[in-house]
Design brief:
CATH architecture: 3-Layer(aba) Sandwich
Strand order of the largest sheet: 2-3-1-4-5-6
Order of helices and strands: HEHEEHEHHEHHEEEH
Structural class: alpha/beta
Distance between the termini: 11 Å
Number of helices: 8
Number of strands: 8
Strand content: 15-25%
CATH class: Alpha Beta
């Protein structure tokens, strides 16, 4: 029902096939729809603020250049991109993580209005959530959340509540015959917890245990595994240290090629599920 890969170079799947004329036509058509602001969402990207949704989809879209890339600010509007997956191009809508009006509009459109919703990419980060607002950071530190483990525990609680909300949206959309057909749990920022990758798998994978797994398996029971395919994939689009309250955790990468290997694996699996495999 789900995938988890150690993501060593030897484990990366075969490259996606070269696109035929039909898929090229589809790609440019979807890009046009995004440009003019029309067309239904095929894939909705959800997750809490600071989990890395924009970075993940930006890297997937191919917009990142190492020499000019900068960490994006908090998203306040829906980001729509035409991203090529396998032989087809899908319209991705990245939903803001903040509780703002644009977020509610995007979720409502994706799950209740659009008729071509195929999949959900839900981005989590094992508690290494970026908290950008200095006022919020100071408040949390003053309240006693002054270690990396403490902020991770805090973030995991918020992450779980966000996932529960998304699961309800998915279940209701499926009950109304709107889809989606698959969900990918993208476990982001894997560079920060590579030594604990097995523990992360236990936390997120359907065969694991804990509150997140219970919520995921409850969704699969409500919808039915035959109607909703699930994959769980570690990803690492842009490694960077995690800092909190004067403490720093550096990425635990073994080779510089690992981030690209993560993305190749992510794209390959998404191509598989989007083609019904």
């Amino acid at each position: 029902m789900a995938d988890w890969t150690d993501l060593l170079p030897t484990a990366v799947r075969a490259p996606i096939a070269i696109y035929k004329n039909k898929s090229n036509l589809n790609r440019w058509w979807k890009k046009l729809l995004v440009y003019i602001g029309t067309g239904d969402t095929n894939v909705v990207v959800t997750g809490g603020a600071g989990a890395g949704k924009t970075v993940l989809t930006t890297c997937h879209h191919g917009e990142v250049k190492d020499h000019e890339w900068k960490e994006p600010d908090a998203s306040t509007m829906v980001e729509r991109k035409a991203i090529t997956v396998g032989e087809w191009t899908k319209v991705f809508s990245v939903v803001p993580g903040q509780d703002i009006h644009a977020r509610e509009v995007a979720l409502n459109e994706a799950f209740h209005k659009h008729s071509n919703l195929e999949g959900v990419v839900h981005v989590v980060d094992y508690g290494y959530t970026t908290i950008r607002a200095s006022v919020v950071r100071e408040k949390l530190v003053k309240s006693g959340i002054d270690t990396i483990q403490a902020i991770r525990d805090y973030n995991l609680g918020l992450e779980l509540e966000e996932f529960k909300r998304v699961c309800d949206l998915i279940a209701n959309a499926c009950a109304n015959g709107r889809g989606p057909k698959w969900i990918i749990i993208a476990v982001n920022k894997a560079d920060l917890f590579l030594p604990e990758l097995d523990q992360a798998k236990e936390y997120y994978h359907p065969d694991g245990s804990g509150p997140f797994v219970e919520t995921l398996n409850r969704l699969m029971t409500r919808v039915g595994s035959n109607h909703l395919k699930c994959r769980v994939i570690p990803v690492c689009p842009k490694p960077k240290p995690y800092e909190w309250a004067g403490k720093m955790l550096k990425p635990a990468l073994v080779t510089y090629a690992e981030p690209a290997d993560y993305m190749k694996n992510f794209v390959s699996i998404m191509a598989e599920v989007s083609s019904g495999k």
